[in-house]
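Technical annex, item 7. During the second reporting period the consortium partners agreed on a shared format for inverse folding records so that results from different sites could be compared directly. Each record opens with the tokenized structure and is followed by the designed sequence. A conforming record, contributed by the partner at site C, is shown below for reference.
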């Protein structure tokens, strides 16, 4: 069919919407015509009809219509550029008789001008972005493929400038028409999400980020093309049903699961990574700092709604450690994984935006002001708390952006003690002093404990005791429950942080006996060797001079050492099960040796030496050498020897203690006791009167 007749047929088809209409076929025909028409007026006419056609826009299928139209212009310019590159390289195929040449004989510059002329006042300005965005993406993809397009550099710059100007005009238009959260705003977000990487730095600076940021946030988090204000979780609960065996199932054929699948497949959700980076960049470039505060309110509202919807879901009543017991196989393997994929996408997007906020606070004098910075930091921590039921499944260090946002917000807030006190009281458990039954409440307790640990130095002794200690004590008492091991470890960290605070001497004297008893009860079953050694070393630092507690309780360090020493003499000698750190390092170049409980206790005593008063140090140096010889396994004993030597020479001791250690090592039998103590004992048992001493073995140090 001749091109003119085909164009007329296509234009007639675009004038009316039909239920049985094959839209992809129409767009494929449009792409073909764009690359073959030779009359510039026909190119402009076709473009104008594509941007206004009732067949496309009367009942648009969300952003899929925009994405298809973007693809039309991307494919068209890619074909034009590829052909002209081949012509310049003398590698273009010979034209087939009767077939129109690619580009209709127009130069790329003439062709682009003709197509862009069709983006006129008859169509909304945001639709013009489909043309310019498709062109820019097409040019960028051709350059990425290695085509030499130096001749198109000027053309690209013109397209970039035109896209920026059209975007700013479209932002004003959708704002005036109230379409920020409607199709116009969605289309702007879609095009910029795909084309932003192709813009140069100068052109990016020309965007009006004050208008763009609300459009992006509204589209991503609150529109029907994004996360729908988190209300999709509310429909899930309606389809979660009980099945035989006291299990829950979420059928794959349920409407709510179909909705989750539809959300995941939306154009903006599938590309939420680049979109979140664009939102973070907009946060950093927005001129109005108060716009950031408004956006933070929106993010806090979204995250709060997400957590509230999750709490009202039956699935939230199942602890992570018990999912295999209470979830049907269909739910556990088919339906729930996509739901968590969607929730993680929401977490990642929110965190990336918050990263932009924290970076802005660090560099913006207005947002860093005393009346603003603690508010933004507190809002950030509240938002992360609402999303903690998602991030807690990923592990604390698996998402570096989350770690940066979390620690930066804490660092900012700790500079304001009054606001820190108010924040911790606002997130404290309503079940303070007891362990809540709902898994989500326990997850929030874990967030509280992990966060509160960082604030002990700026809180008053009353808050430390009545809030932090009160929250930790129930979990310390339940240390034997393997399902609550992460919360138990967090409670230990909080207790150590409180006891280490300089203003907590009275609290330490009051709660230390309980904590020591809890510490020894749970090791090694529910406390790793690394954690036990760290806890005991912290207790020695708290109770030894010059701490305030040592003035009223001078015998505490010796008492603690005696407890560990007595237990080390009678502790089991078989290797302990490897902890998470050991398992993670199994495949490394230097995997750690699995130690026995006895060896760990000996290492604990050695860790304490740099903190002992001089009198106790002189007493415990030979005692540590003696108890080290009680380790029967040669490899474990060698680990203890190396740690003993490290304590003496690595600088952990101050000059005065080092002098005592050197004197003991050189002139009081320290070297013989550490290096050859066990051999000397064995020789003494075998020695007869008049026998010659055996030659010394070389040390393994």
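Designed sequence (site C submission):
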């Amino acid at each position: 069919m001749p091109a003119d007749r085909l164009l007329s047929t296509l234009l007639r088809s675009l004038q009316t919407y039909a239920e049985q209409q094959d839209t992809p076929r129409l767009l494929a025909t449009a792409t073909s015509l764009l690359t073959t028409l030779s009359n510039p007026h026909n190119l402009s006419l076709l473009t104008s009809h594509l941007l206004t056609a009732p067949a496309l826009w009367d009942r648009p299928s969300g952003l899929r219509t925009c994405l298809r139209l973007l693809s039309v212009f991307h494919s068209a310019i890619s074909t034009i550029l590829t052909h002209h590159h081949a012509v310049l390289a003398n590698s273009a195929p010979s034209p087939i008789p009767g077939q129109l040449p690619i580009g209709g004989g127009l130069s790329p510059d003439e062709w682009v001008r003709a197509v862009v002329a069709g983006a006129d006042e008859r169509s909304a300005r945001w639709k013009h972005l489909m043309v310019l965005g498709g062109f820019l993406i097409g040019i960028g993809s051709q350059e990425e493929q290695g085509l030499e397009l130096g001749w198109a550099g000027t053309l690209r710059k013109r397209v970039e400038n035109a896209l920026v100007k059209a975007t700013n005009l479209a932002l004003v238009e959708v704002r005036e028409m109230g379409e920020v959260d409607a199709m116009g705003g969605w289309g702007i977000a879609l095009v910029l999400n795909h084309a932003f990487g192709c813009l140069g730095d100068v052109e990016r600076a020309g965007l009006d980020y004050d208008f763009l940021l609300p459009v992006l946030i509204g589209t991503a988090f609150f529109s029907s093309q994004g996360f729908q204000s988190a209300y999709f979780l509310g429909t899930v609960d309606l389809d979660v049903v009980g099945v035989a065996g006291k299990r829950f199932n979420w059928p794959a054929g349920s409407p709510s699961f179909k909705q989750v699948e539809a959300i995941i497949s939306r154009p903006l959700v599938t590309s939420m990574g680049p979109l979140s980076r664009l939102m973070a960049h907009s946060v950093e470039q927005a001129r109005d700092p108060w716009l950031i505060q408004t956006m933070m309110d929106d993010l806090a509202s979204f995250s709060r709604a997400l957590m509230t919807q999750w709490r009202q879901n039956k699935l939230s009543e199942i602890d992570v450690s018990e999912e295999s017991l209470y979830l049907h196989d269909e739910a556990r393997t088919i339906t729930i994984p996509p739901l968590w994929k969607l929730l993680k996408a929401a977490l990642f997007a929110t965190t990336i935006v918050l990263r932009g906020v924290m970076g802005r606070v660090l560099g913006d004098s207005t947002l860093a002001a005393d009346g603003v910075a603690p508010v933004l930091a507190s809002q950030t921590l509240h938002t992360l708390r609402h999303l903690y039921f998602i991030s807690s499944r990923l592990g604390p260090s698996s998402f570096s952006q989350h770690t940066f946002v979390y620690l930066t917000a804490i660092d900012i807030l700790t500079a304001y003690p009054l606001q820190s006190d108010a924040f911790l009281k606002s997130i404290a458990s309503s079940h303070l002093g007891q362990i809540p039954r709902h898994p989500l409440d326990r997850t929030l307790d874990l967030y509280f404990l992990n966060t509160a640990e960082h604030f002990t130095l700026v809180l008053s002794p009353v808050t430390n005791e009545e809030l932090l200690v009160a929250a930790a004590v129930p979990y310390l008492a339940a240390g034997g429950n393997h399902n609550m091991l992460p919360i138990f470890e967090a409670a230990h960290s909080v207790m150590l942080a409180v006891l280490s605070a300089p203003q907590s001497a009275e609290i330490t004297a009051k709660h230390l006996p309980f904590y020591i008893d809890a510490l020894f009860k749970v090791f090694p079953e529910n406390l790793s060797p690394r954690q036990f050694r760290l806890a005991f070393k912290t207790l020695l630092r708290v109770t030894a001079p010059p701490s305030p507690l040592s003035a009223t309780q001078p015998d505490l360090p010796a008492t603690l050492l005696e407890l560990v020493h007595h237990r080390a003499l009678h502790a089991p000698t078989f290797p302990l099960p490897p902890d998470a750190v050991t398992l993670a390092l199994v495949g490394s170049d230097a995997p750690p040796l699995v130690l026995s409980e006895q060896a760990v206790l000996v290492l604990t005593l050695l860790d304490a030496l740099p903190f002992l008063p001089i009198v106790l140090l002189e007493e415990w140096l030979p005692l540590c050498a003696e108890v080290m010889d009680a380790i029967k396994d040669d490899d474990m004993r060698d680990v203890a020897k190396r740690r003993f030597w490290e304590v003496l020479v690595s600088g952990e001791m101050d000059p005065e203690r080092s002098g005592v250690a050197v004197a003991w090592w050189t002139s009081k039998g320290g070297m013989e006791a550490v290096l050859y103590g066990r051999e000397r004992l064995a020789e003494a048992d075998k020695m007869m009167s008049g026998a010659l001493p055996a030659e010394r073995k070389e040390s393994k140090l």
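The chain has a mean pLDDT of 88. The radius of gyration is 35 Å. All partners now use this format for quarterly exchanges.
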